[in-house]
What does this fold into?
Amino acid sequence: MFEQFLVEMHTALIKVGFTPSDQFDEAKVGYEKAFPARLDQITKFLGAGPYACGDKLTYVDFLALSVLDQTMAFTPDLYNDKPVVTEYIARLKNLKNLKEFYESDDCTNKRYSIFPPFANWSGHPTQSEKQL
It folds into this structure.
């Protein structure tokens, strides 16, 4: 269930990212309005366990990290009051191999877009709100 929820979250981000320029602001506002409820759902999915399946790390946690990392690039301020989610992301990013990757020059988050350059929001690390 959590896996499908994450896919739906990612699909919503894709829809906003590829929204035509003249409709982008409205689409972003709608996305941001619905987003806190999505984070509340993630908090419920995570429950008391450190990972999606309690104490066991699974592929769903890596899917979650990917989706949450991308949505955090798009709407970072919406994570401010969601400590369960931000602590979950930090816990995953601090796994030995992932930590090494995120700190390395090989980390693509520092130089590649989330979506192609023709998307209205590509998620490139240098893209700012003014470029939208």
The chain is about 60% helix and 0% strand.
